[in-house]
Amino acid sequence: MTNTTEFGNGEIPWRPFAGFEGLYYHLLSVDDRTQVVDMLMKFDPHAECVPHRHVGPTKTLVIEGEHRLFEPVIGHGDPHTSRVSAGFGTNNGDETHIEGGGENGATILLQMTAVDGVVYEILDADGNIDRIITLDDFRRGLAKQQARTAA
User: Fold this and answer.
1) Which domains does the chain have, with CATH numbers?
2) pLDDT tens, position by position, 65-99
3) How many Å apart are CA 59 and CA 7, to the nearest integer?
């Protein structure tokens, strides 16, 4: 099943999130001075990411579709937050959830602020930290993305 939204008219070189069906990203910037990562994410209909905790402040703008937030538990129930196109959300950090797309998927703009270089933590099924995602990870990803675009 594919996302039925049209943002970018096919011009954005979306990259799949390794190991996650129906999740795609495109990095826009990584600012070491302010510790901010700007990124587009696209969810196919009903696609979800893993439980994770945004360490620092995060801002989210829904470009199109429906962006859903769930409790950070595998096999969760209904979303506790749902935003549609032009919906905006922000938190001050220490925000734990699972994100997903609605009936027609979702495209969102994320602005994530790191704390001491840590952007977010991926959690296992028991809520323990499984992996830490840092500014360095995003910087490497942006360099690879730019190299692919230039080729």
Assistant:
1) 7-150 (2.60.120.10)
2) 999 999 998 788 889 999 999 999 999 999 999 99
3) 19
